[in-house]
Amino acid sequence: MAKSGHKGISRIDSPQKKMHGWYVRVRFNHQARAKFIPDRLHNGSRDESLVAAVEHRNRLERELGRPRTDWSVVGRNPRNVTGVAGVRRVVKKYKGKDGTVHLNEVYEVSWNAGRERRGRTSVSIKKYGESSAFRRACAIRREKERMMYGEPVSGKWAGALGKVCAA
User: Fold this and answer.
1) Nearest CA-CA partner of 139 in 126, 118, 123
2) Cβ–Cβ under 8 Å, residues 103 and 92
3) Strand partners, 57
4) Distances in Å between the alpha carbon of 30 and those of 27, 74, 83?
5) Which of 82, 83, 86 is nearest to 73 (CA)?
6) Single pTM value for the model
7) How do residues 90-145 score in pLDDT, each as one tens digit?
8) CB atoms within 10 A of CB 109
């Protein structure tokens, strides 16, 4: 976290350039926005310019569709073929009691379970079928996003569901 105590907001004090203020940066889904909020526009007050910087950061996050949280938020990734962040299709290997190796196709759901922890679960394709397993995995991911961020990350849930269900 920045010294300001707010994610994405850094203090810049440069006496040589007569620059004193807060630098706001927001990045989400391969888009980046930045703006310098100088103290001089806010009666020379560090505190007033910090309040303006926080308001500007929140406004930029709303424009980009990023949920307001201090946690890392994963947007779109070109390597994600399901179209839903945190949901992927994998083949898990496990050994049976007799020692034979079995393969199980699943949709694996992952999420941040805390600052240093990750949560992970999977939904069997064999048990629920392709489209039902994907829908269940997406429902789990949305619920975890509600717990983490207060709301699901806006994405192409319907488009991703339609794409997998049509296949």
Assistant:
1) 123
2) yes
3) none
4) 7, 11, 15
5) 86
6) 0.52
7) 899 888 889 899 899 999 998 877 767 888 999 999 999 999 999 999 899 888 88
8) 23
Give tens-digit pLDDT for 77-87.
667 777 787 88
Are 12 and 23 in contact by the 8 Å Cβ rule? The answer is yes
How distant, in Å, are the alpha carbons of 69, 76, 127 from that of 48?
A: 22, 35, 58
Q: Which two tokens stand for residue 154?
A: 């806006």
- 118, 111 contact by CB (below 8 A): yes
Provide, rounded to the nearest whole percent, the portion of the chain with pLDDT above 70: 80
Length in residues, the chain = 167
CA distances from 56 to 46, 115, 117 (A): 15, 26, 31
Distance of CA 166 to the CA centre of its chain: 27
